[in-house]
């Protein structure tokens, strides 16, 4: 783009853009904040850095307006699978509105495909690899008047060898935890494993960890700022069991009110670790991906199903909250194999199950070997697999329907307390049940998930008495789960709702607590009594109040 001379007495305005999927507790601009932090230390007088949060739902024109309003000389984009197209569209608007703005990009897409991104013509510079050291070098060169062409030629992908050399964006004020509903917490970089579909370990060697003194300081800062949720950025948190246990003890002592989200490997779970997880507020995510060892070995993973079950049982017995990831469309997998993996996963009673189609990400080993496996995939973001020799395009569509049905019924529908009970009564496997629910969704729609579930299960049982018990169970746990979820976001004591039952819900709950879970036995034991009840939260517990007709009209 030619030589760009910088006047030495002019402070340069830099805008670092973070484009999030949607507003959520995870939508935190940690990457841009890390860059802002190192620039604050390296060029405090020469560069003024602002971080701008944008969202995928916004138009390119609206995003560009927000950027231009900050009067930038330079604009940097963090490019990921989900925001590459919008970033490109925003840049094109900026080029038209103010051609003098210098545009650059980093992030996983820039690292995986730097030449491709430059060839698209909307960027002046691409900074591949971990960006902290690169951005200090590149912008320092710009301040000296070095041309972007020369700077680009001198740049090569790199990574920060020692995370202790980086300043903390939380502790130096670059990122204010109190300004966001959640917080991202980076504890390590790199991965000891070499999963072919993952970009995490490509180009790096081993794991680099944030030192414990900084971990403690940041944790205390989160607590002081009133952070309620923290998403831990460490794909194998429990690989170093000793450090993981030390961090969990620290959390229990210093931040017991914060809810944490961790990613784990099942192989490194032991009984002590399970108890430590159960002693704090946390949710655990385990990457199962598939329950078929032959399929996993094609992507440099493996599974010992007996060991996996035993380790998950430790979490279950300790009372920890855990979920799994599944991927469909893996090389060598079939639709039937995916169904078997889904059945295996749900047989372990996870709190949630996240299901994704396989993406062939640039820069991964799978991207190199995809032709050998016969994988057809989208050439542009999000690079989703279209078909393979063993997983047809129709199969991919069927798996997507199954994933939607699972998410709606199991995850959003708060199905954990009753799922096995109703599954046994219907004598179905989870995949068979979700297949029926997917067909039901083709002709039924309701914004209220619980109402949709009630309508579905009412159609599943030919005996009206059994159907009434089933729908009462779904209604109670669906409504109470939604209330507890809302209570975590709103002031205590504000959540309540009305619900209709075929039987006295208090008596139904007494029977369930006594261990009577067979629907036919419950239908025989419970007298029919259609009633309305108010469900409300008090001291973190859902309570029931049966309403008489006058109270119903008053409500």
Can you offer a commentary on this structure?
Helix content is 43%, strand content 18%. With 555 residues, the chain is α/β, with parallel strands linked by helices. The chain has three domains: 12-154, Rossmann fold (3-Layer(aba) Sandwich); 176-411, Alpha-Beta Barrel (TIM Barrel); 452-554, no CATH class. The strands form five sheets. A six-stranded parallel β-sheet has the order 6-9-10-11-12-13. Helix 2 crosses helix 3 (84-97), helix 10 packs across helix 12 (305-318) and helix 18 (449-460) runs antiparallel to helix 19. The longest helix is centred in the last third of the chain and has 24 residues, at 464-487. The termini are far apart. Mean pLDDT is 91; it is low at 1-8.
Features:
555 residues, alpha/beta, Rossmann fold, TIM Barrel, 3 domains, 6-stranded parallel sheet, 5-stranded parallel sheet, 22 helices, 18 strands, 43% helix
List the helices and strands and how they pair.
Layout lengths: L11 E9 L9 H13 L4 E9 L4 H9 L5 E5 L5 H14 L4 E5 L1 H5 L1 H6 L5 E2 L4 H13 L4 H7 L28 E4 L1 E2 L18 E2 L2 H13 L4 E5 L7 H14 L4 E6 L6 H8 L3 E8 L3 H5 L7 H14 L3 E7 L6 H12 L5 E6 L7 H9 L2 E2 L7 E3 L5 H19 L7 H8 L3 H12 L7 H12 L3 H24 L8 E8 L1 H9 L5 H7 L2 E11 L2 E7 L1 H6 L1
What does this entry show, briefly?
The chain is an alpha/beta fold and 555 residues long. Helix content is 43%, strand content 18%. It contains 22 helices and 18 strands.
* Overall tally of domains: 3
CATH topology of the largest domain: TIM Barrel
Terminal Cα separation, in Å? 67 Å
Strand percentage lies at 15-25%
What is the name of the CATH architecture of the largest domain? Answer: Alpha-Beta Barrel
Cα-based radius of gyration, to the nearest Å: 26 Å
CATH homology superfamily of the largest domain: Aldolase class I
- Record field, number of beta strands: 18
Uncertain runs with pLDDT below 50, 5 residues or more? 1-8
Strands across the major sheet, in which order? 6-9-10-11-12-13
Question: What's the story with the biggest beta sheet?
Answer: 6 strands, parallel
Which structural class do the helices and strands define?
alpha/beta
Q: What percentage of residues falls in helices of 4 or more residues?
A: 40-55%
The residue-averaged pLDDT reads 91
What is the CATH first-level class name of the largest domain? Alpha Beta
Tally the helices.
22
Overall shape: globular
